[in-house]
Amino acid sequence: MFIGVDLGGTNIAVGIVDDRCRLKLQKSKLTRRQRQPEAIIKDIIELISEVIKDYGITKEEIKAVGIGIPGLFNPDTGEVIQCVNLNWKDVQLKEPMEKAFGIPTFIDNDATLAGLAEYEAGAMKNKKSGVFITLGTGVGGGVIIDGKIHTGFNGVASEIGHMIVGENYYDCNCGRNGCLETFASSTALINYTKKLMKEEKKETIITKIIDENIDKLDGKVIFEAAFKEDEIANQAVDRMVKYLATGIVNIVSVIDPEIFVIGGGLSKAGEFLLDKIRREATKNKYYRTLSIGKIVLAELGNEAGIIGAAMLGKHCINM
Amino acid sequence: MFIGVDLGGTNIAVGIVDDRCRLKLQKSKLTRRQRQPEAIIKDIIELISEVIKDYGITKEEIKAVGIGIPGLFNPDTGEVIQCVNLNWKDVQLKEPMEKAFGIPTFIDNDATLAGLAEYEAGAMKNKKSGVFITLGTGVGGGVIIDGKIHTGFNGVASEIGHMIVGENYYDCNCGRNGCLETFASSTALINYTKKLMKEEKKETIITKIIDENIDKLDGKVIFEAAFKEDEIANQAVDRMVKYLATGIVNIVSVIDPEIFVIGGGLSKAGEFLLDKIRREATKNKYYRTLSIGKIVLAELGNEAGIIGAAMLGKHCINM
Question: In the record, which residues are listed under signal peptide (chains A, B) (predicted)?
């Protein structure tokens, strides 16, 4: 058995996963990210103790703990380098976890681990190479090459949200301009829709859907309006898709994977979004006649984070 | 012994390379690319016969023939998919080669093979992962992951010249806008320098170096002027470097290799260029405090093409 921890900006979710990627039991609580890292780490430890107890096993039956974090981890030091959403910087995470349970603990980026879950048990199963792209508050990635997650020499691979794909009207949190994340995240989509609603002075059904309360504007609303052929919504979605397709074709130009898997909140727009992405990516191939990797939706839902984290543990102890 | 063939837009170069990457003998002739593919293939076959004869061995001693082409190859069909510079499209190359000598023949992109040569005997030696970037008429790439050249699922990986890194004032040959090649190739550098000379109305020593003959303008001249602190030349070089650094950091965001190796004609500008690239890439990291791969100059010169092609043969028959 393995423990998988999905540490998010909103929730901490912990689960027990068996050798065959099946999530057996899951518990979660609010992250309350304004707290100190120590308080959050204490909650993770408590949740792990609870799932072990509730599932009725001993901690000796747990082979490894895996943790997905919304940021970057340094395996050499055991420290979380940075999690912008949690306001963490240089936080020791591996040590307190291993001290608490005496179980080997492994940590990696959450999008990378969701990619690993899709590889082990979802849309990338039996593929040799693939890239998982998560479209949420930010844009994250998980690169699988030859059946292994690829974190790179300095641990900063799979950070495809920070690939520069054009010039944008606002800067990225990372301080640069043109990052994929500023075009293709839900934050970017909402931001650009607001801009259009203000500047274009066109009728849009969005106003009605959100009861004229702009705070209610989210990715779901925009896709609902786009699906109903609303002009403003489609303009915003098409711009998002254009740059996402550029990002996909850029990835092709480096590693040309067998498959792209689209996950995260915006992927709930399903085939409507996927069709647009496929059309735009096909239009943007640099060699028009050649094939590029298949583009599909993620198969695992929210539990991808826990399963991927657990599978990280499995991969690491088997290495 | 292995035969390496470097099929370029200007020259066909053929050499004999031993198991330890040493080029023993080399012959070349002009490609005369306006000719039919059959005539060029005939020349390759003749050159191979000549080097075998001149080196005084029999063809039975040759274990494999490797050919680097300035374009894309489909290993499933044995056909060259496209070589824009040679005006080749769907040309069968493997079959006539194997028919002529009865020796297994392997073909790949020339920049990819130059990268393989740097991995086997040059700047990437003993590195686990690296990306070779050639700055010539176009921009090519060779991606090495886990000690293997990475050509991707559809054979279009390592085509980093077609990674989109911004918006440009002219389109790429591939029909799109913003490809790295349109910013960082010698063609792009020359093109932009001409534009500046026309529009900026500034004094520049370039005019003197080229005897007021704009046809003499090339990468070497521009770097010579930039080194002498000419404003126009530095403006052009800095723009080129800015986008090249964006391309490098984009590659980091996908695969984060251990090393980047800069080759091709423009790399003759040496440390002057390298310093600028390193400075700009460091400035452009998305996580400021983190390391990115080393950036160095290619160690092999023109012979990288032949050596890499020969090593392709070695890799393939050992697989």
Answer: none
